[in-house]
Structures are given as structure tokens and as C-alpha cells.
Amino acid sequence: MSFPKDKIRNFSIIAHIDHGKSTLADRLLELTSSVAKRDMTAQILDDMDLERERGITIKAHAVTLDYTASDGEEYMLNLIDTPGHVDFNYEVSRSLAACEGALLVVDASQGVEAQTLANTYLALDNDLEIVPIINKIDLPAAEPDRVAKEIEDVIGIPCDDAPRVSAKTGINIEQVLETIVTDIPAPENHDDKPLRALIFDSVYDNYKGVVVYVKIVDGKIRNGDTMRIVSTGAEFTVVDVGRMRATSMESTGELSSGEVGYITASIKTIHDAKVGDTVTLASNPCSEPLAGYKEVQPMVYCGVYPADGADYEALRDALDKLKLNDASLSFEPETSGALGFGFRCGFLGLLHLEIIQERLEREYNLDLVTTIPSVVYKIHMTDGSVLEIDNPTHYPDPADIDYCEEPITETHIYSPADCVGTIMDLCQDRRGTYVGMDYITPDRVDITYMMPLNEIIYDFFDSLKSRTRGYASLDYEIKGYEQSKLVKLDVLLNGDIVDALSFILHADKAYPRARKIAEKLKANIPRQMFEIPVQIAIGGKIIARETVKAMRKDVLAKCYGGDISRKKKLLEKQKEGKKRMRQFGKVEVPQEAFMAVLKLDDE
Amino acid sequence: MNKNIGVYVHIPYCNSKCPYCDFYSLADKSRAREYVEAVNVKLKNFTKDNFCKADTLYIGGGTPSSLPAEMLCSIVENVKKSFRCVPEEITAEFNPSDADEDYFKKIFASGVNRLSFGMQSAVDSERRSLGRRADKNQVEKAVLLAKKAGFNNISLDLMLGIPKQTGASLSESIAFCAELGVRHISAYILKLEEGTFFYKNSSKLNLPDEDETADLYLQAVSELEKAGFLQYEISNFAKAGAESKHNLKYWRLEDYLGIGAAAHSCINGKRFYYPRDIDYFINGGEPIADGESGSCEEKIMLGLRLKEGIKKELLSEKSLNEIPDLEQNGYIKTTPENISLTPQGFLISNTIINMLTE
User: Fold this and answer.
1) Which residues contact A133 (CB under 8 A, 6 or more apart)?
2) Looking at the partner chain, which of A556, A558, A562 has a beta carbon nearest the beta carbon of B256?
3) Around A429, how many Cα atoms within 13 Å sit in the side-chain half-sphere?
4) Residue B245 domain-assigned?
5) Looking at the domain assignment, is residue B256 inside a domain?
6) CA-to-CA distance for B154 and B141, rounded, in angstroms?
7) What proportion of chain A, given as a percentage, has pLDDT over 70?
8) Residues B246 and B300 in one domain
9) Among residues B102, B43, B17, B38, which one has the least CA distance to residue B68?
10) Any idea what the CATH number is for the domain that residue B201 is in?
């Protein structure tokens, strides 16, 4: 007995970071009594510590809410929460594809941001009904009228009836629920078609195996059915299906078209149930899979090494565990002369990289050294072969290279109009090619540049933020590869190449960058017992040089009144500090030096 | 137990706090009398349970001279009475601005035979930036008064790497010490201790940088030696025979008993200390255990502070392999049995100690 289709509403929430998406979700849960007050921690959907801390959603989540509307009818509201960052664009697009509508939450004191707009366009591409919500009207700086007009101007959807709410204080939340019921269309009834279910997320659970989150587009699925993953043909016996509740899973034994829920089927890895793939039945398969499935390719690679070589196995286990729940993370063993044994890891973007790194350090208590991130370059050799290189160490002898290509993005920057000058300087400096500029409103612009990805992945976003007092936002999409004049920079400490510090960049950037790196290393490598030449080279040619002078003195404390333990502690501290350093030949390099070479635009 | 120990008594009082100092001291002296009584009780109790002689007594601080002479005398008397002997070397630390002929006479009469003056610099502008009240003339007067009272074993503290110090100003300070005819100099490099005013304001202090400070230290070593003050420890210099017997006990891992708040002891292979809390001490609180003494690491760490150095047999094979490099770079000197640090080596002794104790 399935739920009446016309009483189902499937929706997601689109919002910029900090515009209040998770708080609004919490209020909806509360108001529909989905969560007992006592279980209400702030932002229940963001269940990773990191998500709560950073105020962003990393994984998609879903929850079914029961709501009795003012028309007296019972509705089933399926809220599908989406990740909120450009690195996870594909996940966002699949989550949106599972919905018929989306709440567009905009901060009444801030207005429309790049991320919001990008995701709104994704939603429009998926034919979603967009319901604008103006949030944070309790703030003194709130300008709901201006923001409403901005939404109308920029996105072209009417905002007259848009609920004006404060998720924080709970003002007008009821109105949001009513608008969902009245404005978002119900899913169509396709119960009689062969099963097609869209996978919009999958999570590994130690007891149940993979829990697959799906939207049933056509047909029905029941416990005991033999399900088939369309892209791979793999088949599994369905153990259980049901709905996701805020704090539990509610087994129903059947899911039918229009519904959102979970499937468990003793699936061992999430790679067997990838986001975007279609689930059908082995007994009555669909003829066509749902559109839009693609394999997600990592965009950014870097080496991840344990600070203490003894932790190599622990790092491998941790990566294995993270990969259980993250199909877009890839890794394979690599060896560095400087760093020993580690892994080459592929990420969707820099945020993804940072999140993985932080989770490894926090949840698995690992001390890591990561190398400079790299994009994937295509090196066309004189013999006609093409190498794809994501690790500078594998960069071939320049004499054998015909030409190189690097990935190019179309980058949109949304910013206050008075920041245009400084943004254009920055983009120009990062080898951007100006495409155009649109005034969204008289004082907000959308600037478009074609930019090499390797100019974005280091500290572009940080620089952008600092140049615009945090007001600019960024969105980019890979548009393909372009020919480029690339060179590899090598860093030599005390005459030896430190492979982990090598990187590939555009030839025009080599000299200024080399000088900066030399200065940064000089500033970040503590003086040691001998003088250390820091050299930056292209091929065999040194193009920049600094010297870390020999150490002259360390702390000579007055070892007073026989207080030996104080002295011991001092020496211990120094030893601890040393442990955090990497040894390169005779030279000890602190982790901060690695980070420092990444951040170059801090003057 | 029938051996000699050194006795250290901590006086946790100062008339004012110097901006670079983080030793335990208080300005409020309202409990000073009770404190001295507690010191005397502890001395007595210790000698009830332990039969030993005290061959040195060091009254440090804080500023011992911020208390009335009678109180210092009573401590000296009680050491003599409790240990039933007269220590060979009895030192009191002294702030030059407390100099007073009568005071000197009283403590000399009680048996104090060595004074250590907190001079820090003979350049008035430098002394002011260190928060020292006395000017150069007062320092000179203090030394002369002390000599007149009978003291001939006098030490001056000198600080290196202090705000605005230059090679020339350091020479001036060293020449001043030499002319005053003192027999011992302690020359410390300023360390910015967490929590002090200097620590919080280091960027505004005009401090010599690492290289300049290292140069000042090397200059001090060479000029002091020329003036007849031979280096016997990383920061200590003396005319022949005037080395501090008490302080040598610390570096040689000999036994010493520390009495008073924040005082540390090392007796029969055990280290212990009283916490930085006068109330705890006055109320008769027991010292806190601080582990064993006498490990190989300790012997290396402490022994390398001395000019005489350490026996090579203390070092592991791995550490011994580091020796040729260190010697070639001029950081250490070796004999068939010994290694010791050179002045350049003293400057980076922490790094070398850590290398040799890994």
C-alpha cells in the first residue's frame, strides 16, 4: 500500500555557506515533530563534526518528514540535503535530480552569492520548481525588499510571496512548509513501469553494508527483489527498503515511484552503488538508464605521507575506511625520496583535499605531510605518445616533450561592483582570459574568466576573499585542456633535490615564483648547525637562491637553583619540535615550510 | 649518610619585579617572618632524619637582601646549628640598591662569606630598560661597602643580549667588573620567559638578533678571559679558585637540599621540589617528588655545561659518530677520554645535547 503520490513532496535546499540552510532544516524537523526536542543538537543533518565546524555540508543527507497541512491532509515531505561546495558539483546535481523542487535560501543581509546561483542553475537544468526563502530577517542589517528584488532580477523568479523567515528564531517557518505543499509539484505516478531508481548517495555501514539512498523514478522495489546496478550489471538481493527518519531508519518493505528512501542489499562497497547510477530489477529491467550518470574524476592530486614512517599502515587503513564512504577519493601507494612511503591521492578539489586531510588527522589521529597539489597535465612527447601527469616527479626530460596541455576552467566570480578592479588584477595575475562581466544588480557583478585550473587550486580563493573583504564568491567548471608553456621547478636544499617540493607551472611564472619560494623556505626553515643553500632550478639551471645561515645560538637558560626539570622540559620540547620535521639529507624541514610554499599571495 | 651536601634557601621576595624575570617572587612581605621560621623548621627536621654535613649554603631568590639582615642571619645560624658545622662557602644574593654598611657587617659576622650582586649591566640606560633601580655608581658603592665589611669573594651578574646592548657597551660593563676587583662573573644570555613583560613586548624592545647575541657571548668569553676570569661553566667565569662551589654541585650531580617555595633538591638519587606557593610552604607542605637523578642523559646534559666536559664513555655509539663532525665545525674539543664544548658549542648546547642523547 503506497503513499498517495499527490501527497508527496521531494525537495532540497539551496543556499550559500552560512545563509542558514542547516538551521532551516533543523526548524523543519522540529516543526514536523521529526526529532524530539531533547535530541535536538544544533544542525542535526550535518552529523560530521567537520560539517558543523565549517558550516558546510559535505555529504548529502535525506530525511522524510510527516506534515499535516492547513488543508487537513497528511503530506510526506522528503528533504534531500545537498553538499554546498563547488568541489561536489556532481553530487549536488544528482541530489537535485531526485527532487521536484528546491528551496532557495538567501540571507536577507547578504543577497545572492555565486554558489547559490550556480546551484540554482543546476536546479533549473533539472526542471525543479524554485521556491525562494528570504532568511535571517531578524538581523539588523537585513534588507528583505532589496534581496527579494535581487532574486527577481538575477534569477527571474517572482518573490512577492516568498516567505520571509528567521530560521534562527523560528519566525514564519510554518509558512515555508505550506509553500512547499502548495508550490512544489508532486512526483508523477509511474508505478507500472519497470523499476528505475536514482542513486543520489550511498553510505557504508559496518552492519548493513552499503545503504543506498534512492529516489524511485519508475516502478517499485520490495524486500527480496533481485536488484541490478545498470552501469555494472551487478546484482544483489534486496534485504530491506524504507524511509530515512531524522534519527532512525523506518523499514517499509516497499518503495514505489515518487518516493525517496533507502535500500540495503549486502552490498560490500560503495563503488558498487555510485552516485548517479540507476537501480533496476533483474526480473524486469528497464530499457534505458536514467540520464546523467558519469564517473567522477579527481581534479587535484597530492602526495599524502605519514609524518612518522611507522604510521604508513595506519594511513592506509584510514584511507581505506574513508574511501568506504567517498567514491570520489582515489589513492595509490607512491614513494618519495624525501618523504618515504605514502600515497598519491586524487580529490575533487582543494576543499575535498583539505577535508580528507583534516579527517585523517582528526578522526584517525595521524600526523601528515602533504605535497604541493597538482592538476593532471597532458604531456605530448616528440614520439607522439601522450603522458598524463599528476605528479611532478614523473615530469619527463624537457628535450623529449613536444608540447604540454593543462586543464582550463570557466570561472565565475560574483562580487560587489567596487571590487572589480582588484579581482581583475588577481585573475590577470593568475593567467586568466577575460570573457565578460554582467551586472546582476547595479552593485553586484558576475565576472567570467577562462582560468587554468592550476592557478585556482593553490590559494586563489583565499586571495579572492582577502581582496574583497570576504564578499566575493567563486564557482568554476572544467572546460577542457589547452596548450600551455609548462616547466617543472625543482627545489634543492643543501644541493639535493627535494622531490616532494617540485612542481609544474607556467614558464612565465617560473622566475617570480622561484624567488618567492626561495624566500619562503628561507623564512620557514630554522637555522641549523651548518649553512643551507636553498636553490630553485629548472632542469639544471638555478634560477633563484637563498641561504639559511648556520645557527649561532639556541636558548641558554639560566639553569637556576638546581631546577633541572625545567631544563629537561626545554630539551624535550626541542626534541618534540624536531620530530615534527622531515629530514632531507642533513637538512630538517618543518611541515610549515611545505605549507608556506603553497601560499604565495600573502604580501 | 655521612657526606657533604649543599643547602639552597629560596627567598621568594623582591621589592619589585623585573620585567624579564619569571622566578618565583612576591612583593608582599607580610608573611616573611613566618616563612623564615618555616625554613628553619624544615632545616631542623631534615637533619633529624639525615646525618650529613653542609659544606655550602646559598641564599638565593627573589632578593634575599629585600629581607632584614636578622632574618638572613637566623637562616645561617640555623643551618650551622642543624648541621652542626660551618659551611665552607656561604653565598647571599644581593640587590645593589639594598647596599648598607651595617647590613653587610651583620651578615658577614653571621658567616656569609660570598656575595652575588645582580648588576646585569654597568651601563645605566641598559640597567633602566631591565628595570634595575640602582645606577652604576650605586653598584660600585655596594661592592666597595661589601669589601669594607670584609667580603672578598664577590660575584657580579652580567646579562647578554639585552635591549640596546652593543659590543662597545658590553666591553664597558666587563671593564667595570674587572676594575672593581670582584672574583666571579655570571654572564647569562637573556631568555624571554613566557608570561613576562619582555616576552609580551619583545618586538618593541630593540633586542640584539641571534647573530649579534652570539657575537656578544663570544666577546664576553674572550674579554672576561683576558681580564683573568676563566670560563668554568657555560655562563660562569672566575678568577683561579673562586669558582662557586655550590653551583658546581648542580652540574656535577652532587647532593643538594633546596628549602623554600620553588626550591629544588637532589639527594640520594632522588629529585624533589617545593611548589611555587609560599602558603603551601609555610603550612608545612611536603616537597613533591620529581623523579630519579643520575641518568646518563642527565650526566651529559649537566656535564656539558662545564668547561671540563664529560667522559666519552657516557655516549652511545650513535652519538660518538657525531663527534668528528662536531669537532671539525669547532663546536667541541676532545681528549682521548673527554669531550667538552667550545664557546661556539656552548651557544648551541641544547642542540648538541639533544644530538648526543637521542
Assistant:
1) A24, A103, A104, A105, A106, A162, A163, A165, A176, A179
2) A562
3) 14
4) yes
5) no
6) 13
7) 91
8) no
9) B102
10) 3.20.20.70
Residue A19 near residue A105 (C-beta atoms within 8 A): yes
| Strand extents, DSSP E, chain B | 4-11, 53-61, 89-94, 114-120, 154-160, 184-189, 230-233, 236-238, 256-259, 264-267, 270-273, 288-292, 310-311, 332-334, 338-341
Contact: A563, B301; criterion CB under 8 Å: no
Residue A493, all three cell numbers? 636544499
- Single-letter amino acid, residue A208: K
What's the structural domain count of chain B?
2
Query: B264 and A530: CB-CB below 8 Å?
Result: no
* Cβ–Cβ gap A560/B351 under 8 Å: no
- Least-confidence region, from A78-92, A513-527, B68-82: A78-92
State the residue for C-alpha cell 633535490: A497
Q: Which has the minimum average pLDDT: A143-147, A325-329, A476-480, B50-54?
A: A325-329
- CB burial string A365-399: b at 16+ within 10 A, e below: ebebbbbbbbbbbbbeeeeeeeeebbbbbebeeee
Same domain, B306 and B174: no
pLDDT at B1 over 70: no
Percentages of chain A per state (helix, strand, coil), in multiples of 5: 30, 35, 35
DSSP 8-state secondary structure symbol assigned to residue A235: E
Q: Which amino acid is at B73?
A: C
The distance of Cα A8 from the centroid of its chain, to the nearest Å, equals 30
Residue A422 in grid coordinates? 582588484
Interstrand relation of A101-107 and A129-135 (parallel, antiparallel or unpaired): parallel
B13 lies in a domain? yes
User: pTM for the whole thing?
Assistant: 0.67
Contact B198, B254 (CB under 8 A): no
For A163-212, write each residue's pLDDT tens digit: 999 988 888 989 999 999 999 999 999 999 999 999 998 888 888 889 99
Contacts of residue A549 in chain B, CB cutoff 8 Å? 211
- Between the two ends of chain A, the Cα-to-Cα distance in Å is 66
Residues B241 and B325 in one domain: no
Q: Are A556 and B271 inside 8 Å of each other by CB?
A: no
Name the residue range of residue B234's domain: 4-251
* CA of B189 vs chain A CAs: smallest distance (Å): 6
Say yes or no: B128 and B39 in one domain.
yes
